[in-house]
Amino acid sequence: MWKPEACIFDLDGVIVETSDAHFKAWQRLAESLGISFGEEFNEQLKGVSRRKSIEKILALEDRQLPEEEIQRLMDKKNGWYQDSIAELTPDDILEGVPEFLTSLQQMEIPLGIGSSSKNAPYIIDYLQLNDTFGVIIDGNKVDNTKPDPEVFLKGTKALNADPSKTIVFEDAASGVDAANNGGMISVGVGSQEYLGDANLVISDFVGLTPQKLFSQLNEK
Ligand code: B16
Ligand code: MG
Question: For residue 1, is it within any domain?
Fold first, then answer.
């Protein structure tokens, strides 16, 4: 059976559901500025950096702010977000994910994290996943945000894997684009509506085995 040289997982929305906490914190910040947005616009914030996110929110109302004010607002949002993720425990790992990761480990497939979040090291700690991943590339380690493939290419390099033989799991359109731009095999986790550019879309990991996934990818 064909198997990949590595698997790289996005964090937020794939391993754990923190996107609602991001959404609520951004909404709260936007409201304080008299800007409102809903879930559809929020899809555009998934996978993109904190800086890019605030720029997109301000652009909704054509708002320009001085640099210090932008920094202050980002810190405020991050404070609210950090308060909510401090509650995370291993029980918050999404359903089906622990079993899927264990099966990959039994197959000796190297595993990595490729996240835009600068909070990724805290989240991994709260979820007690430090020993699961051979490499963690996060928002502190890249210059270019998704859809640039840098975060995933750094991951494949560290895992000594060929990008074209690496599977990337992503819940955001920007992340699927990043994987595709890096010449990797992209698996979208979520809805076909937003992730249609992925090589394959799965709804979640419940009941999914690596064998089943690899053969589905092979049929493509
Ligand atoms: P932070 P991922 C991303 O994480 C989130 O999807 C995105 O909504 C967030 O803006 C970005 O991290 C930056 O997060 O403010 O914590 O640095 O999906 O790439 O794991
Ligand atoms: Mg994500």
Answer: no
Helix (H, G, I), strand (E, B) or coil at 176: helix
Indicate which residue's Cα is closest to atom 14 of ligand 1: 117
Q: What is the CATH number of the domain that holds 138?
A: 3.40.50.1000
How deeply is 161 buried, as exposed, middle or buried, from its count of CB atoms within 10 A (0-12, 13-18, 19+)? buried
CA distance 206 to 72: 40
- At 137-147, the pLDDT tens digits run 999 999 999 99
Ligand 1 atom with least separation from CA of 22: 8
When divided into structural domains, the chain yields a total of: 2
What are the tens digits of pLDDT across the range 10-21? 999 999 999 999
Domain hosting residue 81, numbered range: 19-85
